[in-house]
Amino acid sequence: IAAIALGLARLAFLGVLSVWHSFTSKPPPRLDPATGPLVSVLIPCFNEEKVIVSSASRILKSDWVNIEVLILDDGSTDGTAAEVEKAFADDPRVKLLRFENSGKAHALNRGLAQTSGHIIVALDADTLFPKDTIGRLARWFQDPKIGAVAGNALVGNRLNMVTRWQALEYIVAQNLERRALSVLDTLTVVPGAVGAWRREALVDMGGFPADTLAEDQDLTIAIQTNGYRAIFDPTAIAWTEAPATFGGLGKQRFRWSFGTLQCLWKYRCITFNPQYGELGMVALPQVWLFQIILTTLAPVADLLVVWQLVGQWIAYKQHGTEFTDTDLKLIGVYYIVFIVVDLLAAMVGFLIDRHEDWKLLLWLPLQRFGYRQLMYYVVLRSIATAIRGPFVGWGKLERHGTVKTGPAARNSA
């Protein structure tokens, strides 16, 4: 009952603020793409030969003219460098930097040291940008208080149940939350798939932090504690490749969850500290509550269902039809309420993002059976790993180059 009450309260909170954001957010005027400032694009990669050329090519086709693209090969052992050299050897806008393998943050920092632009755009090697995304990100930096801009990451390979579930999660759980927190002038994550940073701010803070796995979340929090604003632009879209198997998804989400725990611990002195405004009093506490604590306790509901099913089966075998199924029905009602809350949150997200295909919602009720349990396991494993304290690496995912963009991606759902 407490979980349902908190879920409804969070839905109301996020829903109202997100709708408010959609009606009141007024982005600054677009800059002239032909005369705008130099934008440096960083693409860190490790064994990305299947996708790196497509990702960089889409950047070069951007309507933003003044760009440089730095491809940061972090010790790849496949043909990543060869593919880049073959495709872009004659393009002066592209620079290939090769390092020994040392992790994503170190690769980004080495690339940052070679940049000339005042605006730094970072994206993953499996991500495709529409031609207007860089311009939409860059326009915000006319305000000297803006230190970071989060774009709108969407799943571009909606090929099966696993990727469609992630597409729903990206639309609802992530972007709905970013809209709401943007109204409060605080974000917890500028995603690595699509984000822009003020170079001056990055240099002042020593670059991308290398002491957590969630360097994007770490940097987002840090840049706000240094007096800059971080905002969300839902129109700055990027299409990314989501893991297409449960194994790949579990690997990715473990890294995310473990990195989030590292960030929460690193910035624990900020949490519930009124000196840091909404970041300390709202943003970080809600991450603790909804992403860690409630997710840790959520398996109890599933165990109760199993307990009731086993108990009812035993009662039936022992007494035939002479037993009551009141408790089982009550838990069934709770589950239905959970699904209804999920659907309401999804509908708010779809109403705000008017371009999404509503048929994708048909996959949402099944998220309660399999997908959610994997997320519970990931968080529990992250907590156990954090307690033990072993080193956890970047965690390379296999790429397939199956990302589509725009209507082709949405209609594949």
Give the low-confidence spans: none
Helical content band: 40-55%
* Rg, Å, rounded: 22 Å
What composes the largest sheet? Answer: 7 strands, mixed
List the helices and strands and how they pair.
Blueprint: H1 2-24, E1 39-45, H2 52-60, E2 67-74, H3 80-88, E3 94-99, H4 104-112, E4 119-122, H5 133-138, E5 146-155, H6 161-183, E6 195-198, H7 199-204, H8 215-225, E7 229-240, H9 246-266, H10 277-297, H11 299-319, H12 326-352, H13 371-388, H14 406-411
Parallel strand pairs: 1-2, 1-4, 2-3, 5-7
Antiparallel strand pairs: 4-6, 5-6
Helix pairs in contact: 1-6, 1-12, 6-12, 9-13, 10-13, 11-12
Quick overview of this protein structure:
The protein has 413 residues and is an alpha/beta fold.
Protein model, in words:
The mean pLDDT is 88. The chain has a seven-stranded mixed β-sheet, with helices on both faces. The chain has 14 helices and seven strands. The two termini are 33 Å apart. The longest helix is centred in the last third of the chain and has 27 residues, at 326-352. The protein is of the alpha/beta class and 413 residues long.
Task: Offer a few descriptive terms.
alpha/beta
